[in-house]
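Quick start: what a row looks like.
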Amino acid sequence: MFYRPEDGHGLPHNPFNAIVTPRPIGWISTRDSEGRDNLAPYSFFNAVAYVPPQVMFASTSVKPDRDGTKDSVANIRETGVFCVNVVSEALTDAMNRTSGPWGREVDEFADAALEKAACETVDCARVAASPAALECRLTQIVQLPGEANVVVFGEVTGVYMDDACLNDGRFDVTRYNPLSRLGYMDYTVVRETFSLQRPE
């Protein structure tokens, strides 16, 4: 089949995010200007540059208690910093819990029974049990077409890695099995890898 998004797909569910898969999950931790912590997963997330290292995530919906966006973006606008926590298979249920539509006063770390650790280079918390975390300073927020579509870009200023995930000098994802987002309500877990050499 072929469809133009402006005309609709005619299927029971939108296939767009089932086509663009798998997607890494950016579990974004922030702190507002009053010191309240927030934690929420975003599946429109990725790394975008090596030098300096940079990442992005997109927020595509709004909360009634925020000005046209969600807690993560609102907090980053206030403070200019955030942290990306990697989601391991073991953290699946906690990640899902933090995706709820909780009020801005709710600390998702506490609600999901997650221990906090202090970031080293930015003023916010990270998920202590996460196998890796990227501490970031905001570089820009871009408003995309669409009512609530916002992309946040950040430069990575600090990198945490669990030593148990290091194997012969490499960060080994098979030691924690990252969770990835598929379409609809579906997820997958990375359990095996293979290598390819680029042509010379």
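That is the whole record. DSSP finds four helices and 14 strands in the chain. The radius of gyration is 17 Å.
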